[in-house]
Each structure stands twice: as C-alpha cells, then as structure tokens.
Design a protein that fits this description.
The protein is α+β, with helices and mostly antiparallel strands. It has a domain at 21-82. Helix content is 32%, strand content 10%. It contains four helices and two strands. The chain has helices at 44-53, 56-61, 66-71, 73-82; strands spanning 24-28, 39-43. It has a two-stranded antiparallel sheet with strand order 1-2. The longest helix has 10 residues, at 44-53. The protein is globular and about 55 Å long.
Length: 101
C-alpha cells in the first residue's frame, strides 16, 4: 500500500509558526505597485499587520525582507503578542495612525 507523502508544513518567516492552509497569504516582498514580483507565504494575520503598519514606499525601500520586517520594533511588539496564539488565530489589524490618509 502506497501512502501519500505529507507535505512539510509551511513556517511563517515573520512569527515562526506553522501556517494552516486557511491562513496562508502570499506577500510581495516589494509591492507589485513598486515593481515587485517575488512572494513569500505568511500567516494572514502577519500579512495584514505588515500592511496596517507600513506604507508601500517603506516596504519597497526599507522593509523588503522577512528579516527587516521581523527586526522592526513595531513588528517585534506584534510578534511577541501573536507567537503564543494558535496557528489558525486571526484578528483584524487596525491601520496605524501614522499611515492613515
């Protein structure tokens, strides 16, 4: 009897938790509007938090790697909060007042 291979779990490069299929978002490391093409899978909540905190210019010029996002102090606060939540946890992210228009 052949068994189907179970794919390795995808780990979020922001919060280091396993990403369930229902919470998997593709994030353009450089926004598409700024010419970005490559994507990386993130937890939906991590992806939404990134776009709630940072504008497209910041993402394109400064925060265009998972490492630079993880190391930002605002993301550190978020990561410390979310890291103990269940893998399928989701909550809406409020847009940061500094980037609201």
């Amino acid at each position: 009897m052949l068994s189907e291979a179970i794919p390795d779990p995808i780990i979020c490069p922001i919060c280091s938790r396993v990403i369930p299929e229902s919470q998997k978002d593709a994030h353009h490391l450089i926004p598409k509007s700024k010419g970005g093409k490559s994507t990386e899978y993130l937890h939906r909540i991590c992806h939404k938090q990134i776009h709630a905190l940072f504008n497209e210019n910041e993402l394109a010029k400064i925060l265009n790697t998972a490492e630079s996002l993880r190391n930002h102090s605002d993301m550190q606060t978020f990561i410390n909060w979310v890291k103990n939540k269940p893998d399928n946890f989701y909550e809406r992210a409020a847009k940061s007042s500094r980037i609201k228009k």
